[in-house]
Amino acid sequence: MLKINNLHAKLEDEDKQILKGVSLEVPAGEVHAIMGPNGSGKSTTSYVLSGRDGYEVTDGSATLYGEDLLEMEPEERAAAGLFLAFQYPVEIPGVGNMTFLRTALNAQRKRRGEEELSAAEFLKLIREKGKALNIDADMLKRPVNVGFSGGEKKRNEILQMAVLEPKMCILDETDSGLDVDAMRLVADGVNALRAPDRAFLVITHYQRLLDHIRPDVVHIMSDGKIVKTGGPELALEVEQNGYADLLSEVA
Amino acid sequence: MADTAITMRQVTPDIAEGGDADPALSARLDVLDLPAGGFTAAARKDALARLRAVGLPKPRDEYWRYTNPAAFNAPVPDPIPLAEQGPDSPLFLERKRLTLVFVDGAFDAAASDDLALEGVEVGLLSTADADETHWSGEIYGRLEAAAQERVARPMAALNTAAARDGVLVRVTGQPSKPIHIIHRRKDESADVYYHHVIRLEPGAELTLLETGMTGARSNFVAEVDLAEGARFHHITAKRAGHEKLGWGGVFARVAAEAVFKSFTLSVNGTMMRHEAIIDIVGDDAVAHVAAAVLGDANRGPFHHDDTVFITHSAERCESRQVFKKVLKNGAKGIFQGKILVEPGAQKTDGYQISQALLLDEDSQFLGKPELEIYADDVQCSHGSTTGAIDETALFYLRSRGVPRDRAIVLMVLSFLADALEEVEDESLREEISDRLDAWLTRHA
Ligand SMILES: Nc1ncnc2c1ncn2[C@@H]1O[C@H](COP(=O)(O)OP(=O)(O)OP(=O)(O)O)[C@@H](O)[C@H]1O
Ligand SMILES: [Mg+2]
């Protein structure tokens, strides 16, 4: 499904190379985790994949279902099925959560040539999805993420994912800042979406989340590259020993 | 009394008495056919004297530094093709309302509803001024004159002297529907002056809606006198078109426990200046002034100036100024807002925010907030910001599939939201927001 090959990216305005040859492949139906020290380029990878300004791809490729992601506008990538749950979800004062999500969903559907949802259909959908994530009507009425606690923001990301039903879901540290119960809600939300035609790339620092969302493959990123790929046991190893041993081993 | 024109020649001796003739003012007045007025006669004469004393606005005047008054001072405006007018703004047309139509500043009875609304006495300056007395005589030109004691406002004095029409509305009850004034154009060179007087008796309520476009150049004054506990909402949507030149001033006096709220939507216009001068004179009163301005200079210059002066002279009053300008293609926005708290106006709660969203690097915003406080137990704050579209938020919206243009519209609406919040009535607010959305979408 998602194929990243030798991806190199630098900052647009600075001579600073951040991604130095990332390669990985996530087949449909699988959950992959990316772990790695702070500043190793995990978030940057997710931004470059979703098309954020400020980065320049200097080499390599990234495709979704064989389509060149890097050539598309961010909204086209979304319609193609890519979703990024942000490490730091953005507050947008004045734009209601519902308006935002309905606009997003219908824009995606329109782009894919599907029928748009009416206000009533959408309301039904979002109520149902919100309920599972413990997001009440009051939160939905508020402006996007404004006044949401850290954990509420993360739950809101998962709600958006549940409503948009993307094919390729990237979760950037969705577990950070979550209490134990919220973590379970988020994990349940993700697990409910698991499907043979959907894949997940879960960026995390902790084994905790991976206890709930069992990954098929774990990648270790360091200094802008995937330096090691293995099974779920790799995450346990990181949890117990940190990165030092692992990284010296591959160096 | 018939309209007896006072021509320049008749009034020249006054200038001679003043000693210092202002040739620009003479030229300006020369082309005007000033009405003598009936019940307004004295007010008109006083206004003319005030105007002579201060002269036309000059670029060195404190409140004219950022807005070149040349176009307001010119004897006649350049004509604007009528094609700019188009149909009436669709705003408010579906509501229950009392509609009053003005064409180039003159009341059009045939196009208007009967002047009947329960709890309201609706009159017109054009007809009432034939009489020597009228209830509005205590207000016409008087609130305007009082405001001139602090800062000279020559355009307002000119209006009091020159206006022939406008509504004279006295409200004693709580009418079931708003009054809607629609402005239309007929003469492409019209230089329009109109003057409203609005008086709300104790506990009375009124919503006044105003839409449309008037004149090649327009000059309006609204004097609003609110008695104890009255509630007045003034919602104006100016669809100025690209070549519009206009000055307007609202002069309000707000008594105890009364509420004054105004919201102005301005879309385009070459050179616009709106002044709001509000005197809060009774305890526990509230005055809010808000504006949302959209300026795109792609078809010629855009300059929009809001100048506000709110005076607190009573206790426990609240004032709010919320001004938002969205500027594009080299458009220029100005905000000059003052809060004056007089000695003894304790527990004043004054708030002011002016913000500009610049959609490109050529556009410009100048904010000049002023606080002058002579009471010790008050809470006043002001802020002014200028910013571009938040790229992070834009990316967030796009990453969810919202197309770039739509995302920008959502963000512009979100930027304007605080100003729109000042429209208290939810259905009015939604209607305006929907119109804005449609307009922004068309012009994305
Ligand atoms: N816009 C930017 N400007 C300057 N430096 C940047 C920018 N974006 C990324 N970087 C740098 O690139 C490196 C990788 O950052 P990135 O956010 O991808 O790390 P990460 O692996 O997600 O880290 P963490 O685990 O702390 O979230 C860091 O050194 C970061 O400071
Ligand atoms: Mg990160």
Notes on the structure:
The complex is a heterodimer of chains A (251) and B (444). With 251 residues, chain A is an alpha/beta fold. Chain A has one domain: P-loop containing nucleotide triphosphate hydrolases (Rossmann fold). In chain A, 41% of the residues lie in helices and 28% in strands. Chain A contains ten helices and twelve strands. In chain A, the strands form three sheets. Chain A has a six-stranded mixed sheet with strand order 6-9-10-3-11-12, sandwiched between helices. The two termini of chain A are 30 Å apart. Chain B is α/β, with parallel strands linked by helices and 444 residues long. Chain B contains ten helices and 20 strands. Chain B has helices spanning 8-18, 23-30, 41-54, 70-73, 125-128, 142-147, 154-162, 391-399, 404-420, 426-442; strands spanning 98-103, 106-107, 116-117, 120-124, 167-171, 179-184, 191-200, 205-212, 217-226, 231-239, 245-254, 259-267, 271-280, 286-296, 303-312, 318-328, 332-341, 349-358, 364-373, 379-387. In chain B, α3 packs antiparallel against α7 (154-162) and α9 (404-420) runs antiparallel to α10 (426-442). Chain B has two domains: 13-388, no CATH class; 389-444, no CATH class. Chain B has a ten-stranded mixed sheet with strand order 2-1-6-8-10-12-14-16-18-20, covered by helices on one side. A ten-stranded mixed sheet of chain B has the order 3-4-5-7-9-11-13-15-17-19. Chains A and B meet through α2, β7, α3 and β8 of A and α8 and α9 of B. Bound molecules: adenosine-5'-triphosphate (ATP) and magnesium ion. Magnesium ion binds next to α1 of chain A.
Topology, element by element:
The complex is a heterodimer of chains A (251) and B (444).
Chain A: E1 2-11, E2 17-26, E3 31-35, H1 42-50, E4 55-64, E5 67-68, H2 74-80, E6 82-85, E7 92-96, H3 97-111, H4 119-132, H5 137-141, E8 143-144, H6 150-164, E9 168-172, H7 180-193, E10 199-203, H8 207-212, E11 217-222, E12 225-230, H9 233-241, H10 243-250
Parallel strand pairs in A: 3-10, 3-11, 6-9, 9-10
Antiparallel strand pairs in A: 1-2, 1-4, 4-5, 7-8, 11-12
Chain B: H1 8-18, H2 23-30, H3 41-54, H4 70-73, E1 98-103, E2 106-107, E3 116-117, E4 120-124, H5 125-128, H6 142-147, H7 154-162, E5 167-171, E6 179-184, E7 191-200, E8 205-212, E9 217-226, E10 231-239, E11 245-254, E12 259-267, E13 271-280, E14 286-296, E15 303-312, E16 318-328, E17 332-341, E18 349-358, E19 364-373, E20 379-387, H8 391-399, H9 404-420, H10 426-442
Helix pairs in contact in B: 3-7, 8-9, 9-10
Bound molecules: adenosine-5'-triphosphate and magnesium ion.
